[in-house]
Amino acid sequence: MEQFLKEIRAYAARFGVSPSTVIQKAGVSGGKWRRWVDGTSSPTLHTVDRLRAYMAENPPAADQAEDVA
After folding, report:
1. 4 near 42, Cβ under 8 Å?
2. N or C: which end of the chain has fewer CB within 10 A?
């Protein structure tokens, strides 16, 4: 779970947006982000796949890419 949250944070940082914005753009309720971080909820495997597919299909432009670890 921590790795998944890290992936979303890194992707969001590349675009200069919040992680909740990223998940909203992928078609997932932005309010879920806080519950995932708080540990009160977890994403389904379907949601994880959906978000990873969205991020893969919408990479940052070369001038936005940076090594965020």
Report:
1. no
2. C
Give the number of other CB atoms < 10 A from CB of residue 22. Answer: 24
Q: What is the pTM of this model?
A: 0.83
Q: Is 32 exposed, middle or buried (0-12, 13-18, 19+ CB in 10 A)?
A: middle
DSSP state of 68: -
Instruction: Reduce the secondary structure of 2-28 to three states and give it as a string.
Output: HHHHHHHHHHHHHHCCCHHHHHHHCCC
- The answer to whether 33 and 23 are in contact (CB under 8 A) is yes
Confidence category of residue 16, pLDDT binned at 50, 70, 90: very high
Q: Distance between CA atoms of 17 and 61, rounded to whole angstroms?
A: 14
